[in-house]
Amino acid sequence: MKKLLFAIYRWPAQIAFVLHSKKMRSRCQAKKSSLLYPSCIINNPQSNRNAISIGEYTVVLGQLLVLTHSGKISVGDCSYVADNTKIWSGNSISIGDRVFISFGVNIHDYDAHSISAKNRHEQFKDIFITGRLLPLGDIKSKPIVIEDDAWVGFNASILKGVTIGRGAIVAAGAVVTHDVEPFTIVAGNPARTVGKASE
């Protein structure tokens, strides 16, 4: 009887999980075996669901966002994106297989705002008038690549134009502004090499 009551008690949560996952899947191309948890947010205002793709057996608890006019995110197989992580693309972000991204990580392939005060104000008005971020104009963007088997520690930030090599480790709180060699450990702000990782 207790088992039955426990199962009945869990039904609303299970139904909510399924409905949320279905809603998020309608905004991207996610393999059937991937898991999109209730904390997962997929923001894809583009008409192309392929702008965000999620591989086999990948778990997403964080946010994946592409801009209205541009941006692409691909996450490979058997990868993990923890809660409170934000992966935002106005260009291209490619995440390989078996990549672990801890909680509170920020990965952004574009500068959020112009360095011109006037242009920032115009952008601010555009967002509130149109409800979306219009083309970037003088805002710079460059692709980000995170290769297979990399590990990004909690509260790290990875900025535009960076490649994280295979098997590399980004320490907690690191700010990565330059490429990271394969099987290298980086830490600090800006991130610097502090050690070697093993295969």
From TrEMBL:
<protein>
    <submittedName>
        <fullName>Acyltransferase</fullName>
    </submittedName>
</protein>
<dbReference type="InterPro" id="IPR001451">
    <property type="entry name" value="Hexapep"/>
</dbReference>
<dbReference type="InterPro" id="IPR011004">
    <property type="entry name" value="Trimer_LpxA-like_sf"/>
</dbReference>
<dbReference type="InterPro" id="IPR018357">
    <property type="entry name" value="Hexapep_transf_CS"/>
</dbReference>
<keyword id="KW-0677">Repeat</keyword>
<comment type="similarity">
    <text>Belongs to the transferase hexapeptide repeat family.</text>
</comment>
<keyword id="KW-0012">Acyltransferase</keyword>
<dbReference type="InterPro" id="IPR051159">
    <property type="entry name" value="Hexapeptide_acetyltransf"/>
</dbReference>
<dbReference type="GO" id="GO:0016746">
    <property type="term" value="F:acyltransferase activity"/>
</dbReference>
<keyword id="KW-0808">Transferase</keyword>
<dbReference type="Pfam" id="PF00132">
    <property type="entry name" value="Hexapep"/>
</dbReference>
